[in-house]
Amino acid sequence: MATQKKVKKPGWKELPEGDLIIGGGTAFEFKTGDWRSRRPVFLKDKCIHCLTCWAYCPDSAIITADGKVVGYDYEHCKGCGICYHECPVKGKAIMMVSEKEAKAKEKK
Amino acid sequence: MANSNIVARTGNEAMAEAMRQINPDVVAAYPITPATEVVQIFAGYVADGLVDTEFVPVESEHSAMSACIGSSSAGGRTMTGTSSQGLALMAEMLYIAAGLRLPIIMADVNRALSSPINIHCDHSDTMMVRDSGWIQIFSENCQEAYDNMLQAVRIAEKARLPVMVTTDGFIISHGMERLEILSDADAKSFVGAYKPENYLLNFEKLITVGALDLQDYYFEHRRQLAEAMKTSKQVILDVAKEFGTKFGRTYGLFEQYKMDGAEIAIVAMGSTAGTAKVVIDGLRSKGLKAGLIKPRVFRPFPKEELADSLKGLKAVAVMDRSDAMNAQEGPLAVEVKAALFDASASSGANKTVLDYIYGLGGREIKPEDIEHVYNDLSEAAKGKAKQKVTYLGVRE
Amino acid sequence: MANLKDLSKQKALFTGGHRACAGCGAVIIARQVLMAAGPNTVVANATGCLEVVSTIFPYTAWNVPFVHSAFECAAASISGVEALYKSWVRQGKYNKKVNFIAFGGDGGTYDIGLQSLSGAMERGHNILYVCYNNEAYMNTGVQRSGATPKGADTTTAPVGKVKKGKEQFRKDLTEIMVAHKIPYAAQSVVGNWRDLTSKVEKALAMDGPKFINVFQPCRLGWSYDPEMTCEIGRLSVETCVWPLYEVVNGQYKVTKPKEKKPLVEWIKLQGRFRHLLKPENKQLLDELQTATDKNWEDLLRKESLTSPAAEPKPSQTLR
């Protein structure tokens, strides 16, 4: 899931002149999800959509739509657990599970 | 022929005058002797509203070049000036300016590097940053300093490389000379408007400048820089040609003085070339076939062209106004010899090249010193063995 | 002030896919500062963690114009960008309103970049400098900096048989900035998004040089569970080891915690202070508590001294 796309790297004549990246936010194409050893699982029914998790996620991995949490971007989430820790809901609207277990479940 | 105005100016005044006519968007600079006047005079133009420039009186040369990098990457025509220790403090940022391919223009008034501290001329400051990726243009006199500054803008923006134009500290910077100044309109139309392709203040096309390159990209970016330096030779020639056609003063990668039929020659940069010309005139009247090669650009180094011009000579003396401290010889001699080595296969010449390290820390170089060099060369040309490296004018 | 609901609908100005450690506080700061600043912002960044993780060629996490040149010169770089902007506006070539923000870590700000920062502040550029202060050189492997607190274990001031970590108190950079008489200087923290975004908004609405020192727990250098980043940030405010305050045109305003907690509450969560919990180091722990108390009282005194109520009446004898 989070593996990098293999692309042929440009030669020196093909690169823009100078140490320059053209275009914003290209890092989004780089996947960091495989760094994760645990993952947040969204408990939709408990979520109050306060967006605290969104505000603090270091990896911009909380997906929102129209001001509401809709899920997590597992291609970028590194599993730090800040979303879980910061969730103000009693009993938490996020559950942290081991990545191994989550993957095993996915396979089933 | 274009209108011009003949005045008396020092080298620093001439460079400041060129900067006024160039009217850069930003100048960021810090005072240092003997370059101080350039930006000091320019600050006066800013204060009088004669230019549109935002002048940034930074707290160090490091910040001067850093601010220049900010301004230039944001899309502005950007200039600065410095000397010696100032250039040394900038060194880190000079490499970055070149690597980022920013066409920053600098007036660099040559002064010896510490230690010992000394405020007078030699070329060790420019030589210290010779591999930074900056184009380096040397000036023989006030007029060349002025002309080179105007051409530097065009060269930098076309080659997308930063350019430093140098003058010999005090000798040119503070010496009053006759100067032909172009009309403001001519100067303006020659330098033209700057239209960067990618720049920070363009929110329609976002860029990230100065990204981290690891093993997989650094080499490609450095290769680009090397190529840019190579192709800048033609840019320099093209700009010089246009300048010559419009204003009647011709420039190249180097100047040849009385090289027709010459048997021996000196290679010298900066104001020393002027002194050498006087000496040559005297020697020629005595029948000695002496000539002079005056490199104008040290970077890019005009390797093939220079070797070609030295082809028919019996002996060559290189005058180095700095020492590379390499247990070998001065930096100019190293380059000249390398050029000749590669050319020797085709020309069959394995000529004597003597290096004279001279004038460090502003030590005066007199016509009789240069005459002494030519005498050595005459003897070398007749097959007499001569000392390979001479510290000319040092007390034993 | 915008709420999170509105902010979440904006275009992301700092994207995922950067290579920061899991739980990194520096990128939380970058995200929140840009949330408040909006898209019309140019960013300059000093060499350091934030720059290294966010711009590995050909990937950039920045969705705004961005420039990095070297370690000690983010303030000078942004000065140059802002100078060009002023020149273009004066020439009638440009009319967009633009924010100019520089980011530097504590190494690039307190130490090697202090001169260029001081110069930029003194020259009065219309810029905001944000220090993401994680109290050591984290990018090179947790070396002590001028911002490292006394007693912290770092790789160049390690805890050994004789020494107990860094032997000096950290310098007070925020006060150095206040001494520049700039219109706005403040301290904020990771873990209070409302405080940080409102300070950024407030700063950017003012003309001239602004400075915000944002305290940033670092899970690597401070050694704690990554999910605790924001929690430890807030605890540093509650223990008054990092007070939230702002100085607006010389006037101090301190955000006081509901209850001032003992310093050890903050210290015991961090591996870099592990040795301080040993009985033989109690004296050092007490010394740190005393210093924290004194700094806090000094700050409150400054607040009361500079409050409008404390303005001295114009003297009748001096004319």
Protein traits:
heterotrimer; A: 108 residues; alpha+beta; two-stranded antiparallel sheet; 3 helices; 18% helix; elongated; C: 319 residues; alpha/beta; 12 helices; 8 strands; globular
Number of strands of chain B: 16
Which percent band covers the strand fraction of chain C?
5-15%
The portion of residues assigned to helices of chain B is 40-55%
Main β-sheet of chain C, in a few words?
8 strands, mixed
Alpha carbon gyration radius of chain B: 21 Å
The secondary structure category of chain C is: alpha/beta
Task: Report the span from N to C terminus of chain B.
Answer: 53 Å
* H/E series of chain B: EHEHEHEHEHEHEEHEHEEHEEHEHEHE
What ranges of chain C have pLDDT less than 50 throughout 5 or more consecutive residues? Answer: none
Report, as a whole number of angstroms, the end-to-end distance of chain C: 44 Å
Helix amount of chain C: 25-40%
The radius of gyration over CA of chain C amounts to 20 Å
Any low-confidence stretches of chain B, pLDDT <50, length ≥5? none
What is the general shape of chain C?
A: globular
What's the average pLDDT of chain B? 96
Largest sheet of chain B: 7 strands, mixed
Strand order of the largest sheet of chain C: 2-1-3-4-6-5-7-8
Query: Largest beta sheet of chain B: what is the strand line-up?
Result: 3-2-4-5-7-6-13
Structural class of chain B: alpha/beta
